[in-house]
Design brief:
Number of strands of chain A: 7
Largest interface: A-B, 31 and 31 residues
Oligomer: homodimer
Structural class of chain A: alpha+beta
Distance between the termini of chain A: 47 Å
Order of helices and strands of chain A: EEEEHEEEH
Number of helices of chain A: 2
Chain lengths: 141, 141
């Protein structure tokens, strides 16, 4: 039995450092070329979502992540101008500040405090807001 | 730009009634033909995950769901013998007991208390366990 065609699956990662800054890249390619965005990308067949998230973050900003927490699943059919992509977003907290370096698909990588003032790619502003609430709940425990 | 090939996307729904029973179907088709399973299925291009979950539950057991909560994302490449499928699982709580009726892809639909004694399809036992913990946290609030 063949598999039906379903939306393309991606993952994005919200990485906060211990001062509340979020790690953003500048997109090298379209859509949203040059916009700030979360590190992330398409999931390969044969890898888990968490492995895809770690791989994309390592490729794009050179960081090896520790624990990941599920933030949410973002599936609005209009969220990506290329077609219907669904993103599974994770949260990672950096205990020490690692200077990020831009890798594949990223023009630059920066830890940014005032992300609400930026124009972010896709629905990444919504994802970061959701991740901030999750991080606050985790830190309150 | 074409979309890369990614794992197939599915959704499953854990529906508890107010006595803690979970709504399970008997699978009409393979894989896991005749096993108990959560209602669910493949996500269509153009629909959100939540809409796909509601549609599958309506098709399979004839119930219109209220609020959905995200339980988790299940992406082990070996979880489905057909190939790599990723399931986004939701929790729904029934406030009144609606007798389920079996619809498409389901031989039967039952509210079952002792689901741990059954042999369930895919990783659905793990999903129900995770959903039980989420429901307990929600009810404790």
């Amino acid at each position: 039995m063949g598999m039906p065609k379903t939306p393309a699956l991606t993952t994005d990662c919200v990485i906060f450092d211990n001062t509340g800054r979020v790690l953003l890249i500048r997109r090298k390619n379209g859509p949203f070329k040059d916009s700030y965005a979360l590190p992330g990308g398409f999931v390969d067949i044969g890898e888990t979502l968490e492995a895809a998230c770690r791989r994309e973050v390592h490729e794009e900003v050179g960081i090896e992540l520790g624990d990941l927490s599920l933030v949410g699943v973002y599936s609005d059919p209009k969220r990506d101008p290329r077609g219907h992509t669904v993103s599974v977003a994770y949260l990672a907290l950096l205990s020490l500040v690692v200077p990020p370096r831009a890798g594949s698909d990223a023009e630059g990588a920066e830890l940014i405090k005032d992300w609400r003032k930026l124009s972010l790619a896709f629905d990444h502003a919504m994802i970061i807001g959701d991740a901030e609430r999750l991080a606050a709940r985790q830190l309150a425990r």
